Amino acid sequence: MCKSKCVSSVILFLGVICLVQNVVTQVQSSASNSLSPVEINQLQAKAQAGDPTAQLNLGKAYEDGNGVAQNDNHALKWYRAAAEQGNAGAQNNLGLMFRLGRGVEQDKPEAVKWYRKAAKQANPSAMFNLGAAYYNGDGVTTDDVAASAWFLLAQSFGSRPAGDAAKRMSNEVSLSETFEKIGDMYQKGDDLPQSSNEAVTWYRKATENGGAAVQMKLASLLLEDPNAVSNYGEIHRLCEKAANLRFSPGAFCMGRMYEEGLGERDLSKAAQWFAKAVVLGHAVAALRLGEMYWKGEGVKQDKISAYVFIDLASTSDLPEARQEKGRLEKELTPKEIQKGKAKVIEWNLQHRPLVLKQQPLSVN
After folding, report:
1. At residue 165, does pLDDT exceed 70?
2. Cβ distance 24 to 59 under 8 Å?
3. What is the pLDDT of residue 364?
4. C-alpha distances in Å from residue 84, one per residue of 91, 98, 118, 166, 268
5. What is the model's pLDDT at position 36?
6. Stretch 152-178: mean pLDDT
7. Which of 80, 162, 340, 349 is the most buried if burial means most Cβ atoms within 10 Å?
8. Which superfamily does CATH assign the domain made up of 7-25+49-173 to?
């Protein structure tokens, strides 16, 4: 069932799907006059021999009554045969048959399954149909960001109707969210072919007005690049921007860059950024800062401070932090441990809201 908001837009999207189907039918019908029995026999012979293109075209002929008697059951049969061989056009058309209940009982989730297969092969009609499915909640949970992403992708691959849909969606979903979603899809490789390069391209678009999370997604991908050294300046800017938005992975990233010498090696600056990340709730930063205090790297050696930060890290789901805390407690005196625990309480009171002070740090 279509959602109640923007009813006119929903009708438009459903109408466009029908319009696309009708246009195809009209083109095929005009061609039907030229499909002689001989040509149909040739199509049938090739289709029966397993040619997916012939199977697709024969399915279209049966769907539209093009040179043969119109028969949805036969159309479905040949679309399925071609679709199962990976023909994207047949996969999309089979999805439409399930969506409309032609030749088969209506099954919207099954329709979406076939749209996805075709969309992963860059079929613009299937991408558009996925966008409409997500917008209307047809066979999937309603998701405006996913709808916007698929409409924009369909447009980029040549779907003319998708342009209007993408434009309308831009009034409901920010472009940065849409770009990030497309980047996610390319990076995960589930709905689109996995491509870190494509993910970087879309994440870059998203970072222009996007939040801290997408800044870090892009930074992480750039760090994985074999030629990452050429990206250190951009990575630094991305991490710093995320950190300034009070996103703990951004501050941790800055610390790691200074620690590893990714652009500039400065352990003092690394410790400062790790400290900022700890305040923002980053457990690994707390562990690393504790280790730096224990060894005197970038900070004055201070075993009590080391204990404080490693204790903070140990409250998270970080096994190595708990192991490190156990090791420290074997090396410190009972008096030093007691002093360290008092400092932990003091740190919590100073840096965290009272309602949150007992919650563990995040590992992200």
Report:
1. yes
2. no
3. 59
4. 8, 15, 11, 30, 60
5. 86
6. 95
7. 162
8. Tetratricopeptide repeat domain (1.25.40.10)
